[in-house]
Design a protein that fits this description.
2 domains, NAD(P)-bd_dom_sf, Rossmann fold, seven-stranded parallel β-sheet, alpha/beta, about 350 residues, globular, about 60% helix
Length: about 350
C-alpha cells in the first residue's frame, strides 16, 4: 500500500505535473553537497533557480495542437501530455494510425483528446471549439499551436495552377487565421500564447518552391502584427521557424498520390507548349535534382523542432522566434537577409547550378 502511494506520488509529481520542480531540487541538493567548490555550487544553484522561475506549471492548463496525424504535431502532443498538460490534438483523419496512437495515450490518462478537424473547414473548427470548451481543465486553454501545414508540389510560379495556390493558402495561412480567431478568446482569458509555424523559406527565398514560400512569408507578417495587437492582453505570439526538415515532415510523399517527382512532372505535362518550350524539360529535371539533394541532406528527426515548440508553450518568457536549423543553413539564411539583392540573387543562382 505504501509503495503504491509512493509510486503514485512520483508519477504525479515528477512525470506528470511538476517535473521542473523536482529537477530544481536536485540542483539545489547537489549544490549543497558541492559547497566546498563555490563555482560549481553557484552554477547549480543558478540552474535550479532558473528551473523554478522559467517554466509555467502545466497542471490544469490545456494546449490545442493542429496537424497531429504525423510529424511535429504528433510528437509535440505526446511530449506536452508527458509534461502534464491537457492536450487537444486535431487530426485531419481521426481514424489514422497517428490519431489512434494518441487516442490510446488519452484513454490511459484522460488528458489527451483527439479531435477530427480540417483547418480549412469552418464547421469543423466550430465543432472543435465547442468540444474544447466542454472539456477544459480548471486553468483553461493556455496555448494554441498552429502546426497544420500543406506543402506544394515543387514548380516555378508560372507553372503552378491557381488551385494549388488556393489549396496551400487555405491551410497554411487562412487555416491559421481561422483557428486562431476561433480560440483566441480562450487564450486571452488565460493570458497564454499563440504559436505559429513558419519556415526558413520565408528568409531564404528559393525558386521552385514559390507557392509554399508565399504562405510562410505571410505567416511571419501575420504573427508580427498579432504579437503587437495581443500585447495589451498579455498574450504572447511565438514563431517557430524550422530549417531543412523535409524528411521529418514526409515532404516527398505528402503532396497527393505518388511522390514529389511524380507530381512535379504531372504539373509539367499540364503546361502548354509555349511555356514548356520557354523553360525546357532540362530545367524541370534540374529542379527535381536540387530538391532530391535537399531531401537527402535534411534532418530526419523532429526532436529539435518539437523542443522549440515545447519551450514556446511552457517557458514563462519564451522567445519571439525560435529558428531551428543547422549552422550552415543559419549562415546562409542570415547572409541572404543582409546581402544586397544583386549579390544574393547571384549566390542563389550559383548554388543552384552547383547542386546539379
Amino acid at each position: 500500500m505504501i509503495l503504491e502511494k509512493v509510486e503514485k506520488f512520483i508519477l504525479d509529481t515528477i512525470m506528470d505535473q511538476n517535473w521542473q520542480l523536482f529537477l530544481s531540487f536536485i540542483c539545489f541538493d547537489v549544490a549543497y553537497l558541492l559547497a566546498h567548490f563555490p563555482l560549481c555550487s553557484y552554477l547549480l544553484s543558478g540552474a535550479g533557480l532558473s528551473l523554478l522561475i522559467s517554466t509555467i506549471t502545466s497542471n490544469g492548463r490545456a494546449v490545442l495542437v493542429t496537424g497531429c496525424d504525423t510529424g511535429f504535431g504528433h510528437e509535440l502532443s505526446k511530449k506536452l501530455h508527458f509534461m502534464g498538460f491537457t492536450v487537444f490534438s486535431t487530426c485531419i483523419d481521426a481514424k489514422s494510425n497517428g490519431a489512434n496512437r494518441l487516442k490510446r495515450i488519452g484513454d490511459d490518462t484522460g488528458r489527451l483528446h483527439v479531435i477530427q478537424m480540417d483547418v480549412t473547414n469552418q464547421e469543423d473548427v466550430d465543432k472543435a471549439l465547442e468540444y474544447v470548451e466542454k472539456h477544459l481543465p480548471q486553468n483553461g486553454l493556455w496555448a494554441v499551436v498552429n502546426n497544420a501545414g500543406q506543402s506544394s508540389s515543387p514548380g516555378f510560379l508560372e507553372w503552378t495552377p491557381m488551385h494549388i495556390y488556393e489549396k496551400v493558402m487555405s491551410v497554411n495561412l487562412f487555416g491559421v487565421i481561422r483557428v486562431t480567431n476561433a480560440f483566441l478568446p480562450l487564450v486571452r482569458k488565460s493570458q497564454g500564447r499563440i504559436v505559429n509555424v513558419s519556415s526558413i523559406m520565408a528568409r531564404m527565398l528559393s525558386p521552385f518552391a514559390g507557392s509554399y514560400t508565399l504562405t510562410k512569408s505571410a505567416i511571419d507578417s501575420y504573427s508580427a502584427i498579432l504579437r503587437l495587437e495581443m500585447m495589451r492582453f498579455k498574450v504572447k505570439v511565438v514563431v517557430i521557424e524550422p530549417g531543412n526538415f523535409l524528411t521529418a515532415t514526409n515532404f516527398s510523399t505528402c503532396n497527393g498520390p505518388g511522390d514529389f517527382v511524380f507530381n512535379s512532372r504531372r504539373m509539367w505535362n499540364q503546361l502548354n507548349e509555349e511555356i514548356q518550350s520557354a523553360y525546357g524539360e532540362d530545367c524541370l529535371e534540374q529542379e527535381i535534382s536540387i530538391t532530391q539533394k535537399l531531401i537527402e541532406t535534411s534532418t530526419g528527426e523532429p526532436d529539435d523542432v518539437v523542443d522549440a515548440m515545447t519551450n514556446a508553450v511552457s517557458r514563462l518568457y519564451p522567445k519571439n522566434r525560435y529558428f531551428v536549423a543547422n549552422m550552415s543553413d543559419k549562415i546562409m539564411a542570415y547572409g541572404f537577409q543582409n546581402l544586397p539583392l544583386c549579390i544574393s540573387d547571384r549566390v542563389v543562382s550559383a548554388e543552384l547550378t552547383r547542386l546539379t
